[in-house]
Design goal:
The complex is a heterodimer of chains A (about 400) and B (about 425). By secondary structure, chain A is α+β, with helices and mostly antiparallel strands. Chain A has 17 helices and ten strands. Chain B is globular and about 65 Å long. In chain B, about 45% of the residues are buried. Classes of the chains: A alpha+beta (about 400), B mainly alpha (about 425).
């Protein structure tokens, strides 16, 4: 019975998440929903990071960088590429089967968009006679995911043949470079001003017979929840397959795994690419949900948060990491309010992060596998120890009899 | 740039032959059953510098790869790169303006000394604990913050030396306490996978310190006053000071090279502290014990050295070195709680370039990175972009190092202990 508790709790959790948008009637509906969506977003990142760090033992501090690659790929794609039935003769354009793929020229942050933006000029001259279609959002998201995987492959091939510390060093630098590049290439990425992205469902969507407008929180909630479940399912499948076994073997002892015929670099690169693709996917969807991407999302703070979430949840169990991420996201939001002690205002928006840093270190020091994973293990695997003891107890007389 | 095709053409030519050389030469050396550890690097450099002309004899004769064969092609490749740049962009300031080049070179050298000094702390920690400290940038930041608060906020008018000493003390105590509380279990066998634990826990420390300082000191940039003024010197004569001319905040050599006071002071103090550190490491018992532990942990323990205390000392000392670099530079740059990120990254680059755990390598790497950054900021035509890409120059160096020579310039193979795990 006891080992069923985590499964039951999991089903309960899932039911709660599925029913929540329809059941909840309290105040701040949109705000609470927003916290949930961001919580799911972090849960995808934390669980994929825990697959990489906890299962494979490869510490990457560039997870947020790959998230940013996904977000910026889809944002740039939706921002610069349009389909037009007529040639504009102003922009760079390619004819594909009677339709023109128009690439808008980058102009950056200027107020005179009309005179510089070639597509706007063309639309002006057509005067409404030609309809230009924007690229579909889902295509951008897929492209973003692929791009994340491609960069993951390149970085992985470069660094993963070396030992653990190099990956951590290189990915940290990689995300810093990415941030510098995005901030510096103002003409293309609009720098700190941020790049606007179309909403996930630009024209609204009908879900369960109910129409939701562009700004409603329910469709992105379910999209993000679905993504989280899909990612967890893929991770669970990977962890249970031979792949997971290999990956754990090379975490425990790389040389021994290599000696037993595991192609260590190949498996490390594979797990790295899979997890970076998940991060890029989460980033791309989040970019469309939030409606703007800025280089600030690549700050080290975000990476530290993901690490803290995964570690406090349990770095060697991605479900625990995901649950930890959602819980921590909630706690962080509710700790936001500042208060006064003896006339001194304590700015909780900063102190809460200090608190989480200390919690991160203490968790690492005293409870290696986080705070949630041991609970799951207690219920799910508590019987294993007992059974082992029993087996030994019953096996002993047999061996004695054999002698 | 006037002839971009020329420049990019040469770059592509160099890359193609570099890749070809590195792969072919390695295969050839492997085929002839020779030492391949440097074949990658020499092949890439020879290919980039000379193309097939130099690669062919190497491929046919497969000479022993001694230091001369490592250094000469490297210099040739760098020269070719510089020449390509000069010919394709003849009007650039860093091609035609000699005094600009000299000035940029000197400033790169000076800032490189400071970088190297900071990286020294990181490599000291690594060589003894076997851990890359991800909190190195935060020690740097704390050093600057403490110096700023002591000299400007709490005791205005106090000697800056006291501020620097206070920063060193704070960082030393912090490092020692942290090592005792969080890093000791790595060595007692209580942790499975100690290296990963070390990475994560120092990352946690970085996160905590950064936000602790932000909570206490606020997120507004601060800057300390200049520590010392230059004495007014006019050489050889007051009327025509072509040799040395100094004002309080600036020093001009040969009428061309201009060095700002804070950087000069910082570099001079770095060199002084470095000499003291070298004395400590080579002439005192504790320093020798530190080096012994870095060479072989078990053997040092047999010889009567307590490796755990050396761990504590090394971590505290490494943090103190970073804090010292920070407290010297707080007079040159404006200071924020996040200011440590880029110097920390640069230290990682330097340490990998010099060879993880090698002290002279860190210093050499620091100077190289300082010069590369100076060249990058000086020569890239768009000055604003050139400045925003400062962290990228180091990353290019890091990528090349990891591709061609992962052990770094002066890297060594570790004798034993946890160091071999990297």
């Amino acid at each position: 019975m006891r080992q069923q508790v985590p499964n039951l709790l999991g089903i309960l959790f899932l039911g709660f998440f599925l029913a929540f948008p329809f059941v909840y009637t309290g105040g701040d509906y949109d705000y609470i929903m927003h916290i949930f969506i961001v919580g799911f977003f972090y849960a995808i990142l934390a669980s994929s990071w825990s697959m990489l760090a906890g299962y494979a033992g490869q510490f990457s501090f560039g997870h947020m960088g790959f998230m940013g690659i996904g977000a910026y790929t889809t944002a740039l794609f939706c921002h610069y590429i349009y389909l037009s039935p007529e040639p504009t003769n102003l922009c760079a354009e390619f004819s594909i089967g009677g339709v023109y793929l128009v690439i808008v020229d980058p102009i950056g942050v200027t107020s005179t968009t009309l005179t510089q933006n070639c597509l706007r000029q063309a639309l002006e001259t057509w005067n409404g006679s030609v309809q230009v279609t924007a690229m579909p959002v889902w295509l951008g998201i897929i492209l973003g995911t692929i791009m994340g995987g491609v960069f993951g492959l390149l970085v992985g091939l470069l660094v993963l043949r070396l030992r653990a510390a190099y990956l951590a060093l290189f990915t940290l630098g990689f995300s810093e470079i990415l941030k510098a590049t995005i901030s510096a290439e103002i003409e293309i990425t609009r720098g700190q001003a941020g790049l606007e992205t179309p909403a996930l469902f630009q024209n609204g969507v009908t879900l369960f017979g109910h129409f939701y407008s562009r700004t409603d929180k329910v469709p992105p909630y379910f999209v993000m929840l679905l993504l989280l479940l899909v990612c967890l399912a893929i991770l669970a499948w990977l962890a249970r397959s031979k792949f997971g076994l290999f990956v754990r073997a090379l975490r425990e002892d790389q040389d021994a795994a290599a000696a037993l015929g595991v192609n260590t670099t190949r498996y490390k690169v594979m797990v790295f690419v899979i997890t970076t693709m998940m991060a890029a996917l989460a980033g791309a969807v989040q970019a469309h949900y939030v409606g703007i991407v800025t280089p600030n999302s690549l700050f080290l703070l975000q990476m530290s948060l993901v690490v803290a979430m995964a570690v406090i949840g349990g770095v060697e169990n991605f479900v625990a990491a995901a649950i930890g991420a959602i819980i921590i996201q909630f706690v962080l939001e509710f700790l936001r309010s500042s208060f006064d002690i003896g006339g001194v205002t304590v700015d909780m928006s900063i102190w809460r992060l200090v608190f989480f840093g200390v919690l991160l270190m203490v968790t690492l020091r005293f409870s290696r596998n986080g705070l949630i994973a041991p609970l799951i293990d207690y219920f799910a695997r508590g019987h294993v120890a007992r059974e082992t003891v029993e087996k030994r107890g019953s096996a002993k007389p047999e061996t004695e009899a054999g002698q | 740039m006037e002839y971009p095709q020329l420049f990019w053409g040469i770059i592509i030519w160099m890359i193609v032959w570099g890749i070809a050389g590195s792969i072919l030469l390695r295969k050839r050396y492997l085929y002839r059953d020779l030492d391949t550890s440097n074949a990658n690097f020499v092949g890439a450099m020879m290919g980039a510098a000379t193309g097939p002309v130099g690669l062919l004899p190497m491929w046919m004769r497969t000479p022993e790869l001694n230091n001369r064969l490592i250094v000469l092609p490297t210099i040739a490749a760098v020269t070719l790169l510089a020449a390509a740049f000069a010919f394709s962009d003849p009007q650039n300031n860093c091609v035609v303006n000699g005094s600009f080049i000299a000035s940029q070179f000197t400033n790169g050298l000076i800032i490189g000394i400071i970088y190297g000094f900071m990286a020294l702390g990181l490599t000291l920690i690594f060589s003894i604990l076997g851990v890359v400290s991800f909190a190195h940038g935060e020690f740097y930041m704390i050093g600057g913050m403490v110096t700023y608060f002591v000299t400007t906020v709490w005791f205005p008018g106090i000697s800056p030396i006291l501020g620097i000493l206070a920063a060193c003390l704070v960082a030393f105590v912090l490092g020692a306490v942290f090592e005792r509380m969080f890093l000791t279990p790595m060595y007692t066998g209580k942790m499975d996978r100690p290296i990963e634990y070390g990475i994560l826990v120092t990352f946690g420390l970085a996160f905590t310190l950064q936000y602790f300082v932000q909570a206490v000191a606020g997120a507004n940039p601060v800057k300390a006053k200049r520590f010392f003024d230059f004495p007014i010197v006019r050489l050889p004569s007051a009327a025509d000071p072509w040799l040395v001319k100094s004002s309080r905040g600036n020093l001009e050599l040969f009428d061309t090279i201009s060095i700002s006071n804070p950087r000069f002071v910082a570099a001079v103090m770095c060199i002084l502290v470095l000499l003291a550190l070298l004395y400590f490491l080579h002439r005192t018992w504790t320093g020798k014990a530190l080096r012994a532990v870095s060479l072989d942990r078990e053997a040092a323990a047999i010889a009567g050295i307590n490796p755990d205390r050396m761990n504590m000392l090394a971590f505290a000392l490494g943090g103190m070195i970073a804090a010292l670099a920070g407290s010297l530079l707080v007079q040159a740059f404006s200071w924020l709680p996040q200011v440590g990120n880029i110097p920390a990254m640069r230290s990682f680059v330097i340490v990998v370039l010099g060879g993880l755990g090698s002290l002279p390598g860190a210093f050499l790497g620091g100077i190289i990175v300082g010069l590369v950054e100076a060249a990058g900021t000086g020569c890239i035509p768009d000055a604003q972009k050139a400045a925003s890409y400062i962290p990228a120059y180091g990353m290019i160096v890091l990528t090349l190092t990891l591709l061609l020579r992962p052990t770094g310039l002066l890297g060594r193979r570790f004798a034993g202990g946890s160091h071999g795990k990297f």
